[in-house]
């Protein structure tokens, strides 16, 4: 653990769990990330907000090892993970709920959850019970094909599936996208509940207001660079942020 | 009722050939399902499996095979060709396809066609080796006789006009358990679920910690092994092999896979049974020279009017 090695950390701040420094990545000729730097401390909910195409999803995909970074570093619990294979990163305790949910449509709900625990060989029942408690609808629909679920149910499944790997840090990409408002509230509640039970969360959201309310801290991502950072409340009160991301005058 | 007997005969021949085609078609459909590649080298892999079986038989000695020793030889060939074709298919993926995972599907397809040519020419070279079983290597391109280890006696009695022979029994005894086993692997095991997950959403599969390259490798291994099994029963059923046999068999199997809905394993089996029946009926009631035209006419019609295949409609909803 590289607890609190940054200058800005106060003595009592919890240790840094994820540290991204100067991360750059490209898709072919497109420079998707130029310089992304952020930190997530143990027990925090940190959100990453920004416009469409700012590089939010690419940031998560690069941290997860799906997109290869071209420069910069990613450290998880004090260990460099940039350049590592995606499955090794999951095994290390860092899971992602990807944008658009990406459930396996022709596997059952139960099988989807099993896939989340692919790297584990121990008893899955306690974890299944926890996921079912969090999202009871997943228990009701256990034998249904995931492709037949509604968008909100699929999102719950995607979150439950990621939890099955027992991550210490969960990255979530746009969990509110395309989902009925009532379910969005339910999903954000679940995120807070998980966080209270010790899960650290890095949240990417278009719905900046909801994300900032829920987060301890946040970063603003603009054209592949992290620009502003502050507590959720600070950013909610910042005029520039309000104008650019909260749709206020 | 001679015409009934005649018809039943075509039915038996067609279904037995269909089951052989099915084993090859499963190899196409599995690979397509997981990386969206029509693996054109698959038929030629099947051909090399037959050459390996014949070579082994030559090494075991071309004496009089009968009874238990013949069946032992069959089992040895089945295991050897399955292992060989599985390993070879895995190696082809490593060398020719894996480097192209993020390239366009067209590059992948061209690479498969290249691999096919290489395998065909390996077969030509192999058939020219100076071995007794290859008639001493006099004509590399000539078809080779495959010893009739499995007798052609009629199990329905010598006076019956319908022939149902130990060869037919061999086909069903080998193919049905393999298909049941494969279904079990794909639906019940951790590897099988990982294969389906990778096919349905490779990025999500990687995010779940699935090493998709290994899963794809396993898919090539299994598909290749099925092609190896098919090569041995094909050779024992037809008693002649040639370096070009992979092309015809491969096209039949590919057509079967498309007919059933490429990516669907039950579809591949159903499609193969249809192709097997169409072949035997066309051979019997029309003329053999029409058969290829009819089979590939079906391929063209399916691609135009129902590209998702017979059983493919619900399989095709890539999210």
Give the tags.
heterodimer, A: 249 residues, alpha/beta, four-stranded antiparallel sheet, 10 strands, disordered N terminus, B: ABC transporter involved in vitamin B12 uptake, BtuC, 11 helices, 2 strands
Task: Furnish the topology, listing elements before pairings.
The complex is a heterodimer of chains A (249) and B (319).
Chain A (H helix, E strand, L loop, with lengths): L15 E12 L2 E12 L3 E5 L6 H8 L5 E8 L2 E2 L5 H6 L2 E4 L11 H8 L8 H10 L1 H5 L10 H13 L5 E5 L7 H16 L3 E6 L2 H7 L2 E6 L2 E7 H6 L1 H7 L4
Parallel strand pairs in A: 3-8, 3-9, 6-7, 7-8
Antiparallel strand pairs in A: 1-2, 1-4, 4-5, 9-10
Helix pairs in contact in A: 3-6
Chain B lengths: L1 H34 L6 H19 L6 H31 L7 H23 L16 E2 L20 H23 L1 H11 L1 H6 L4 H27 L1 E2 L3 H16 L4 H21 L2 H18 L14
Antiparallel strand pairs in B: 1-2
Describe this structure in words.
The complex is a heterodimer of chains A (249) and B (319). Chain A has 249 residues and is an alpha/beta fold. Chain A is built from 10 helices and 10 strands. Chain A has helices at 56-63, 86-91, 109-116, 125-134, 136-140, 151-163, 181-196, 208-214, 232-237, 239-245; strands at 16-27, 30-41, 45-49, 69-76, 79-80, 94-97, 169-173, 200-205, 217-222, 225-231. In chain A, the strands form 2 sheets. A 6-stranded mixed β-sheet of chain A has the order 6-7-8-3-9-10, with helices on both faces. In chain A, strand 7 (169-173), helix 7 (181-196) and strand 8 form a beta-alpha-beta unit. In chain A, helix 3 packs parallel to helix 6. Chain A is globular, with a radius of gyration of 18 Å. Chain B has a single domain (2-127, 165-305), classed as ABC transporter involved in vitamin B12 uptake, BtuC, CATH 1.10.3470. Chain B has 11 helices and 2 strands. Chain B is globular, with a radius of gyration of 20 Å. Residues 314-319 of chain B have low confidence and may be disordered. The interface between A and B is medium-sized, with 27 and 19 residues.
């Amino acid at each position: 653990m590289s607890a609190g090695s940054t200058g800005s950390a106060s003595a009592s701040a919890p240790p840094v769990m994820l540290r991204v420094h100067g991360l750059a990545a490209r898709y072919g000729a497109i420079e998707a990330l130029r310089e992304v730097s952020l930190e997530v401390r143990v027990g925090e909910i940190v959100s990453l907000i920004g416009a469409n195409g700012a590089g939010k999803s690419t940031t998560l995909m690069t941290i997860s090892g799906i997109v290869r970074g071209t420069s910069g570093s990613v450290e998880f619990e004090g260990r460099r993970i940039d350049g590592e294979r995606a499955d090794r990163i999951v095994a290390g305790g860092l899971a992602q709920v990807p944008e658009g949910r990406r459930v396996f449509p022709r596997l059952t709900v139960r099988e989807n959850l099993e896939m989340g625990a692919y790297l584990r060989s121990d008893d899955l029942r306690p974890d299944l019970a926890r996921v079912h408690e969090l999202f009871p609808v997943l228990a009701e629909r256990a034998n249904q094909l995931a492709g037949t679920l509604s968008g909100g149910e699929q999102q719950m499944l995607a979150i439950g599936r990621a939890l099955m790997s027992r991550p210490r840090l969960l990255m979530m990409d746009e969990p509110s996208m395309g989902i009925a408002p009532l379910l969005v509230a339910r999903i954000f509640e679940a995120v807070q509940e998980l966080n209270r039970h010790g899960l650290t969360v890095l949240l990417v959201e278009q719905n900046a207001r909801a994300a900032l309310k829920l987060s301890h801290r946040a970063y603003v991502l603009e054209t592949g660079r992290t620009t502003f950072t502050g507590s959720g409340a600070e950013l909610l009160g910042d005029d520039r942020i309000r104008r650019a991301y909260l749709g206020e005058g | 009722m001679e015409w009934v007997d005649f018809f039943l005969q075509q039915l038996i021949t067609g279904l037995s050939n269909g089951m052989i085609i099915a084993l090859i078609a499963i190899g196409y459909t599995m690979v397509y399902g997981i990386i969206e590649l029509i693996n054109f080298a698959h038929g030629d892999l099947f051909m090399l499996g037959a050459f390996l079986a014949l070579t082994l038989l030559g090494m075991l000695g071309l004496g009089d095979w009968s009874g238990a020793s013949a069946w032992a030889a069959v089992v040895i060939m089945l295991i050897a060709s399955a292992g060989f074709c599985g390993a070879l298919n895995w190696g082809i993926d490593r060398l020719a396809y894996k480097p192209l995972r993020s390239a366009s599907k067209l590059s992948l397809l061209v690479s498969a066609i290249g691999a096919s040519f290489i395998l065909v020419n390996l077969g030509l070279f192999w058939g020219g080796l100076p071995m007794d079983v290859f008639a001493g290597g006099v004509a590399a391109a000539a078809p080779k006789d495959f010893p009739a280890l499995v007798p052609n006696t009629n199990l329905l009695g010598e006076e019956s006009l319908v022939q149902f022979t130990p060869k037919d029994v061999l086909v069903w005894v080998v193919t049905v358990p393999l298909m049941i086993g494969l279904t079990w692997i794909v639906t019940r095991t951790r590897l099988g679920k990982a294969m389906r997950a990778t096919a349905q959403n490779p990025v999500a599969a990687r995010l779940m910690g699935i090493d998709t390259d290994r899963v794809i490798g396993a898919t090539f291994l299994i598909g290749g092994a099925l092609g190896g099994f098919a090569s041995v029963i094909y050779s024992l059923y037809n008693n002649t092999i040639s370096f070009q046999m992979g092309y015809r068999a491969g096209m039949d199997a590919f057509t079967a896979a498309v007919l059933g809905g490429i990516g669907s394993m039950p579809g591949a089996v159903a499609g193969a049974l249809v192709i097997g029946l169409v072949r035997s009926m066309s051979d019997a009631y029309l003329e053999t020279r029409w058969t290829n035209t009819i089979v590939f006419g079906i391929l063209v019609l399916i691609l135009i009017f129902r590209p998702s295949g017979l059983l493919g409609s619900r399989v095709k909803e890539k999210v």
